[in-house]
Amino acid sequence: MPGTVEKKLAELGIPIPTPATPVANYVGFVRTGNLIFVSGQLCFDAEGKLVATGKLGATVSVEDGQKAARACAVNVLAQLKAALGDLDKIARVVRLGGFINAAPDFLETPKVMNGASDLVVTAFGDKGRHARTTIGVAVLPMDAAVEVEGLFEVT
Q: Which of 154, 26, 137 is nearest to 83 (CA)?
């Protein structure tokens, strides 16, 4: 039975998908003590298609980048649900890290990453407010526009 966080997301039309299987020699998440580290998640939609490919500031708009970052955040939540069974066990979103596939002169990476940050704050309220790093990169796997990772405190 879904908890409060999942019900809130469902009301917003945001289902939590089955998490993607890692494509290399790593795992989707690691728990140590009361912390869970979620590996970088690409911007796959519920059908397994990338929400946006290409470079921000060249072929991808800020708005489409925000949608991609939001999709990444949904996939981070999917990993958390797989780890915990219930997203209500998240005590605090500690940090999100965003990697933005960006043209060399693209300066709006923070705006793109807001797509992920806004989603986790919507999902978790005040305990969703987090530290963040956003980095423009030359390329991401599969030419994805955005990748997001996270660190979470759990109960």
A: 154
Burial class (CB in 10 A: 0-12, 13-18, 19+), 151: middle
Residue range 86-133, pLDDT digits in tens: 999 999 999 999 999 999 999 999 999 999 999 999 999 999 999 999
Say how many residues make up the chain: 155
Distance CA 3, CA 133 (A): 29
Under CATH, which number does the domain 36-154 receive? 3.30.1330.40
Locate 120 and state its tokens.
């986790």
Question: Do residues 85 and 100 make contact, with C-beta atoms less than 8 angstroms apart?
Answer: no
SS3 category, 152: strand
